[in-house]
Amino acid sequence: MKEKNKPGGLSQGLTHYGDAGFAGYLRRSFAKSMGYSAEALDRPVVGIAYPPSGYSNCHRHFPELLDAVKRGVTAAGGLPLEFPTIALPEVFLAPTSLKYRNLMSMDTEEMIRAQPMDSVILMGGCDKTVPAQLMGAAACDVPAIQLVGGPMMTGTYRGERLGACTDCRRFWAMYRAGTISDEEINEIEDNLATTAGTCPVMGTASTMACIAEALGMALPDSAGAPAVHADRLRIAEATGLAAYRLIQSGITPARVITEKSVENALRVLLAIGGSTNAVIHLTAIAGRLGVSVKLERLNELSDDTPVIVNLKPTGEHYMQDFFAAGGVGAVLNELKGKLHLDCITVTGESLGERMTRSAAKPVDRRVIATHDNPIEAVGGLISLFGSLAPRGAVLKRSAADTRLFEREGTAVVFSSLDDLAHRIDDPDLPVSADSFLILQNAGPTSEAAMPEAGYLPIPRKLAAQGVKDMVRISDARMSGTAYGTIVLHVAPDAAAGGPLGLVRNGDRIRLSVRDRCLDLLVDETVLNQRRKESADELSAPRPQRGYARLYQTSILQADEGCDFDFLTATER
Ligand code: FES
């Protein structure tokens, strides 16, 4: 380990040739082949984890952003060196991007460790990239700072504002119900995502951007600036400067991501009505440093944290409005009395000091409400426990229909994603608006690798009758841009032998948001018999090679952040 606060520059972490002098000489020689002067090569090195991809619409402005980052590093006196890592373009990955989040985190971590750098900038954006980078950097002894790419701008369709992907889902549901035509859905497709940047609602990407800022891992007021706004470039330049200063302060992620800052981030997640996915990601990030996120604690915080942000999918506005309204700084100020203000941030300031600077800015109360006059009195997310979810499940109550909160219903079971696709629109499906739709084998242990399939479509025949929401329960995830009475992340998952896999058509299930409970009302002797019958399915052949094998042998459950068992730290 290099001595703290003392830049090692390019001469640290030499390649092993058995002759350190030769290794240094060879490295400088090869670096000079890129046209660097000796003076440039003597500077402290700021690495830039850079995930470019022709598949990533969300990152299509990254070359310009990278220029701005490098400008900041160079002006400060450092040598900026970007290195590519894999990217995780959300809608281009099969079976789902979550399967590859841990791979990107390993890529990021190992390249930070293997290459000479005194600090590192994490350039991310699309859903899983920011958590992957924070997970990867968390365990490294290298000062790190997050830079997000920023949200895209909204589009318009016949005078109406559109933003991916809450509006994608809304229009698709209308198309399924037969209320809009082929021609209209094609026109909408052209206008849903029209600029660079991440989804412009409070989906997973926006939520993780806010969480990175709330944790103290990103610059203040950096989460919300749109991808194409000049402020985004200024933030990039400032991040380059801050990354250079981080070398002197020696503040590593282990000092920033602590039990207290994770709790602050959970408060912000609840107050912004953020994505359910963030619970998994924050658990995984914290877990890399031995900090545990308990779902029971989430419930306590949720009952004591109001929703104050009026953004889609639960509200009306979009990320560009959130940024203009005051952004994360305004949210933090409203939550001030409930936060741990002594947490250190990447600039070396405490959270409290950072907030003192932003307290005077005007706030648009149509978008960010006050703590005392909130949009919802309690937090957006809760966890449920019970015989159907012994290790917990998550419900985004701020996106759900309160009329469905205290219910007993009859299960209509889909045993897999294929089964769901084949039967959901079957006119003979025995389903009513009061049924509970159950999806099995879509959890982290399944072949599907926990896709965002928890937003089960309303069966076409019910949609045509005007049914807009039903209780839906699964071990899958849900896009942060989706909404509905949707119980997710049921743990243990069905493929790991959890009770969800034992549910059969006609079983009764009780959901009580008030009691935080989710129970399968079936006698234990019946369940034991079903357990025996399903034992063969659970011992199905596993992948034999490559990353798929590593995933299958190492993946943890949702309540453990779906990390790999060999990457988590012991609790501290
Ligand atoms: Fe990248 Fe939504 S597809 S953030």
Blueprint (SSEs and pairs):
Layout: H1 20-32, H2 38-41, E1 45-50, H3 62-76, E2 79-84, H4 98-114, E3 119-124, H5 129-138, E4 144-148, E5 155-157, E6 160-162, H6 166-176, H7 182-191, H8 204-215, H9 230-249, H10 253-256, H11 259-271, H12 277-287, H13 295-302, H14 319-325, H15 327-335, H16 351-358, E7 381-386, E8 389-396, E9 406-414, H17 417-423, E10 436-439, H18 460-464, E11 471-474, E12 486-488, E13 508-512, E14 517-520, H19 524-533, H20 535-538, H21 546-554
Parallel strand pairs: 1-2, 1-3, 3-4, 9-10, 10-11, 11-12
Antiparallel strand pairs: 5-6, 7-8, 8-12, 9-13, 13-14
Helix pairs in contact: 3-9, 4-5, 5-12, 6-7, 8-11, 8-12, 11-12
The structure holds FE2/S2 (inorganic) cluster.
The site of FE2/S2 (inorganic) cluster has 9 residues, from loops.
CATH-defined fold name of the largest domain = Rossmann fold
For the sheet with most strands, the description reads: 8 strands, mixed
Q: Which regions contain 5 or more consecutive residues with pLDDT less than 50?
A: none
Q: Numbering strands along the chain, what is their spatial order in the largest sheet? A: 7-8-12-11-10-9-13-14
Count of DSSP-assigned helices? 21
* CATH class wording of the largest domain: Alpha Beta
Protein structure class: alpha/beta
> Over all CA atoms, what is the radius of gyration?
24 Å
Spatial gap, N to C terminus: 21 Å
Number of domains: 3
**CATH architectural name of the largest domain:** 3-Layer(aba) Sandwich
**Helicity range:** 25-40%
> Can you give the mean pLDDT?
94
Query: What is the beta-strand fraction?
Result: 5-15%
Instruction: Name the bound molecules.
Output: FE2/S2 (inorganic) cluster
Shape: globular
CATH H level, superfamily name of the largest domain: Response regulator
